[in-house]
Design brief:
The complex is a heterodimer. Chain A is mainly α. Chain A has one domain: Four Helix Bundle (Hemerythrin (Met), subunit A) (Up-down Bundle), CATH 1.20.120. Chain A is built from 6 helices and no strands. In chain A, helix 2 packs antiparallel against helix 5 and helix 4 runs antiparallel to helix 5. Chain B has one domain: Up-down Bundle (Cytochrome C Oxidase, Chain A), CATH 1.20.210.10. Helices cover 63% and strands 0% of the residues of chain B. At the A-B interface, helix 2, helix 5 and helix 6 of A face helix 5 and helix 6 of B.
Chain lengths: 202, 538
């Protein structure tokens, strides 16, 4: 009997849970696409109105309005550095490297603040009067909405940073950090479109 | 969304769902309802509030339409315009979308075998954001706000409220879509998802792509309104920035979920697996893709009607509806289904959708001159108003079908058959009168013999609006009057997982989810004799 017991088929081992798409990441992807569509709509309207004016032989930007390229370039570079930083945070948390993940999340926030600061400064220097003409209206509409999107991305990153500080994420479970990184990257991609459509094309 | 994230290790809840995995029981009574994050409670509140707002919106729309057509006899022109446009806001964002979202929140987790909706607290927040926005919008319009309103601050408030309304619906859409993509039961691949859930995945995807475009325009309107009123903030600019959302092809995004309801009712009533299921899934997906209309405003709404893309899309929209109808007809042809409210309402809803897409195709034929505008200074063609009416009526009748079909899950009892029959007849008749009345009025340019009948046809359409409102009201009464003990599967031939749950479902929904091996797991569980003589899955 003892021998029979010893050679009995061992109990079936429960199969590992199915690898399912991550809920927060998928939800964030939907939210990011919807947010991007709001800004991209305004960019579409901006380009349509611009094409109408230019095709009629006019110049798009009114006299006295200055849209320098240097500062938007720096803003773009800052956001890209933010992308690098948040991806560093994802990589760090995947490796259970908590110190580096905190550092990277903090850097991302700093880059975000720098972008917002530069955008506000650009508004003050550009000579745009929102109720003067449709150009100013659209530029404020597009950049202002992107300002809000960047703010939301920063809030998301900040919230995830607090959760990370509370020990909410590790190598096994880092959905929140990855989701905030996704939203950040989409925000930067939208800025890339704005950079080309407004600052480069003028 | 962040705060609703499941803790580590509970993401695969569907693999071992049980009542104990559900959130803790909420407070009892009114506080329990209003503070609930249970997807069933939130879904019921969406449906109930949508029905109430639908009635108010239909009344406003009917008054605006009637007043405008009779030369301003009832109200001043600006009041007509506010009622006409506000009624459209209400019918789309106060009734059609929220009712579909409500059924999505309630039924989709049950269909995919989930213990809850994804982000339950975000779903609850979406309800209150939407409701607050919709009520504020109504108040703003009532105090001389809305399109063409004379009270600048009220107009401003209306635009902000409309953004809130849409934001709430988009948040709920994220919850529904994420549920379908991430919380399906083991074995339920995307091609095995029940057709209603599939249609909601397609619908919410399209909503999340297109309604933010309207939000973008609303932001521009709002910014311009409080500043120079240079373009978008002027009275003409306000509506021309938004009118596309109520015209084809965008208006057809409201009908995607209706096709899903039909797709669940027909095979179950027939007791057969869906014939050509893959084709029907593709047809519904194609219909959703073709209904994307957010590209039209960038080409200027009036100019777009002659563009080749618009014409092609208008004709192409007919095809998926016909293909899906063929699939359902083939399924029904294999059986002798007993007459029932859900089946009759599904058939009526399909007829209305088909009529809408056919009239949409006629609208795109330039030589027919169907693009005559309404008497209102809104830039809306009469035929477009008719198409909107047919789609709203299809949603109303689809709601009759969904409410009677899932009443055991929604209300815990059987939907009263007389109310269901009356509701579907009122919705079908109302939709036909509303749509055909506007079509005839719109055809008066090309066919001059109809010129004298325009006002009469507008009155016919107003009667249609009233009938659609009656259909909405009857649905609400039917849900309130649902009585009787209800089995888990009162139809006895349920194919999908929602018929495995109690009626109404307990918290956590499922004690155990069987392995999903096909699109009809309950047919599999009953064995080959049950349902359909062992026919292979299509």
């Amino acid at each position: 009997m003892a021998t029979a017991t010893a050679t009995a088929t061992p109990a079936a081992i429960a199969p590992p849970p199915l690898q399912r798409p991550r809920m927060l990441l998928v939800g964030t992807a939907f939210a990011a696409v919807a947010s991007a569509m709001v800004v991209l709509t305004m960019v579409g309207v901006y380009l349509t109105e611009r094409a109408t004016v230019v095709s009629a032989g006019g110049t798009w930007l009114p006299d006295g309005v200055v849209l320098p390229l240097n500062q938007p370039n720096m803003m773009f570079a800052t956001l890209l550095l933010g992308s690098v930083a948040i991806q560093w945070a994802v990589s760090a948390v995947r490796n259970d490297d908590r110190v580096n993940s905190y550092l990277a999340l903090g850097l991302t926030m700093v880059f975000g603040f720098a972008y917002l600061n530069m955008l506000v400064y650009l508004w003050s220097q550009a000579g745009l009067d929102v109720d003067a003409n449709i150009q100013s209206l659209l530029i404020y509409g597009v950049t202002g909405t992107h300002f809000v999107m960047a703010l939301v991305a920063m809030l998301f990153v900040g919230l995830m940073a607090f959760r990370a500080l509370a020990g909410g994420y590790d190598a096994r479970q880092y959905d929140g950090i990855a989701a905030s990184a996704l939203f950040w990257h989409v925000m930067v991609a939208v800025y890339a479109v704005i950079w080309i459509a407004i600052y480069v094309t003028k | 969304m962040t705060i609703t994230e499941n803790p580590p290790g509970t993401e695969s809840a569907p693999s071992a769902p049980s009542p104990t995995s559900a959130p803790a029981s909420p407070s009892a009574g009114l506080a329990g309802v209003l503070g609930s994050g249970d997807h069933k409670v939130v879904g019921r509140l969406f449906i109930g509030a949508g029905i109430v707002l639908g009635l108010v919106s239909a009344l406003a729309f009917a008054l605006g339409l009637l007043g405008g057509a009779s030369g301003g006899g009832l109200f001043a022109t600006d009041v007509n315009l506010r009622l006409f446009t506000g009624g459209q806001f209400g019918l789309v964002f106060g009734f059609a979308l929220p009712v579909l979202v409500g059924f999505g929140l309630l039924v989709v987790p049950l269909q995919v075998g989930a213990a809850s909706v994804a982000f339950p607290r975000a779903a609850a927040m979406s309800l209150w954001v939407w409701l607050a926005g919709a009520v504020t919008l109504g108040v703003a319009i009532a105090i001389n706000g809305g399109i063409g309103g004379g009270n600048g601050r009220a107009v401003d408030l209306a635009m902000t409220a409309l953004v809130m309304t849409i934001a709430g619906l988009l948040l709920a859409s994220v919850c529904v879509a994420t549920t379908i993509l991430t919380l399906r039961a083991p074995g339920m691949t995307l091609d095995r998802v029940p057709l209603f859930s599939w249609s909601m995945l397609a619908a919410t995807g399209v909503w999340l792509l297109t309604w933010p475009v309207l939000v973008g325009y609303l932001v521009l309107v709002r910014v311009d309104l409080v500043n120079g009123q240079l373009a978008f903030g002027s009275v003409a600019g306000q509506w021309s920035a938004m009118a596309w959302a109520f015209m084809q092809p965008q208006v057809f995004v409201l009908a995607i979920g209706v096709l899903g309801v039909i797709g669940d009712v027909v095979p179950t009533i027939a007791g057969r697996r869906q014939v050509g299921r893959g084709v029907v899934l593709t047809a519904v997906g194609a219909f959703a893709a073709l209904a994307i209309g957010s590209w039209t405003p960038l080409t200027q709404v009036e100019g777009v009607w002659t563009s080749p893309l618009f014409v092609i899309v208008s004709f192409a929209l007919v095809l998926p509806v016909v293909v899906a109808a063929g699939g359902w007809g083939s399924t029904l042809a294999q059986a002798r289904p007993k007459p029932s409210v859900p089946l009759a309402a599904s058939t009526a809803a399909l007829v209305l959708v088909l009529l809408a897409v056919v009239i949409g195709a006629l609208f795109a034929i330039g030589p027919l001159d169907l693009q005559i505008l309404t008497a209102l200074e809104s830039g809306t063609p009469m035929v477009a108003v008719g198409i909107l009416g047919l789609v709203v009526a299809a949603v109303a009748v689809g709601t009759v079908a969904a409410a009677s079909w899932w009443s055991s899950k929604v209300a815990g009892g059987a939907f009263p058959t007389p109310l269901g029959n009356l509701g579907l007849l009122a919705g079908l008749g109302g939709g036909v009168l509303w749509g055909v009345g506007m079509l005839v009025a719109g055809a008066s340019v090309r066919f001059t013999a109809l010129e004298g009948a325009v006002d009469a046809m507008v009155v016919v359409s107003v009667v249609g609006v009233a009938l659609v409102a009656a259909s909405i009201a009857l649905t609400g009464l039917g849900l309130l009057g649902a009585r009787g003990s209800s089995d888990a599967d009162p139809w006895g031939s349920g194919q999908t997982l929602e018929w495995l749950t109690d009626s109404p479902p307990a918290r956590g929904n499922f004690a155990e989810v069987p392995p999903v091996l096909s699109a009809e797991p309950l047919v599999d569980a009953r064995g080959p004799e049950a349902g359909e003589s062992g026919e292979e899955e299509s």
